[in-house]
Amino acid sequence: MSGKFLIIGPVDAQTTILLAHGAGGAMDSKSMTAVSAALAAAGFRVARFEFAYMAGRRVSGARTPPPRADTLIPEYLAAVMELAADGPLVIGGKSMGGRVASMVADELHDRGAAAGLLCIGYPFHPPAKPAQLRTAHLLELRTPTLICQGTRDEFGTKNEVESYRLSAQIDILWLEDGDHDLAPRKKISGFSEADHLATMAVHVKAWAKDLLRA
């Protein structure tokens, strides 16, 4: 732990990835920990942080509902400034954390503060509410973006997402039979969660390499 951040990965990594958590899982949740470990093993310096409402839960013990995603924008921007990454920075997060990052991505990218955006399990819509899309701002997104998504994610399946209009800057890595945490049903897909995390990390590494070369 370094201040408000949970940091793993090589101290001399070329690229740092800043990740915010989802609406219901803290920065040290099983999913966040697994994703961060996979990215660190691929050579990234990975920094996780918590929004104030989640940090407050640790103190009060109360499971207070998350605020609206757009109200968390100032906290994300403050985390970028406080982290003060040395070298290229990719911003992003898990589920809601990635959504908040996507709302600040163009501002940061335009001023050279972020090289790209990485979303793990983007919440394209609430579960069982496919008409309530959260994609309007993604149509004009200018920041190079990689979304890693399970094909059966209840927040946006492959069949659903492939019908959306999205910015040409957005690439999507589809992980077969993965759920919102990228975990597949091994007997059905033939893959394990570890397989998908490894695939994700390799893909992110190649994507980030292209970012820095551009």
SSE topology:
Blueprint lengths: L5 E3 L7 E5 L9 H12 L3 E5 L2 H9 L12 H11 L5 E6 L1 H15 L5 E5 L24 E6 L7 H4 L8 E6 L10 H4 L3 H21 L1
Parallel strand pairs: 2-3, 2-4, 4-5, 5-6, 6-7
Antiparallel strand pairs: 1-3
Helix pairs in contact: 1-7
Provide a concise account of the structure shown:
By secondary structure, this protein is α/β, with parallel strands linked by helices. It has helices at 30-41, 52-60, 73-83, 96-110, 158-161, 186-189, 193-213, and strands spanning 6-8, 16-20, 45-49, 89-94, 116-120, 145-150, 170-175. Helix content is 36%, strand content 17%.
Q: Helical stretch count? A: 7
Order of helices and strands: EEHEHHEHEEHEHH
Helix content: 25-40%
Poorly predicted tracts of residues: none
Structural features, described:
- This protein is of the alpha/beta class and 214 residues long.
- The protein has a single domain, classed as Rossmann fold.
- 36% of the residues lie in helices and 17% in strands.
- It has seven helices and seven strands; from the N terminus they run ββαβααβαββαβαα.
- The protein has a seven-stranded mixed beta sheet with strand order 1-3-2-4-5-6-7, sandwiched between helices.
- Helix 1 (30-41) packs across helix 7.
- The longest helix has 21 residues, at 193-213.
- It is globular.
- The chain starts with 5 loop residues before the first strand and ends with a helix.
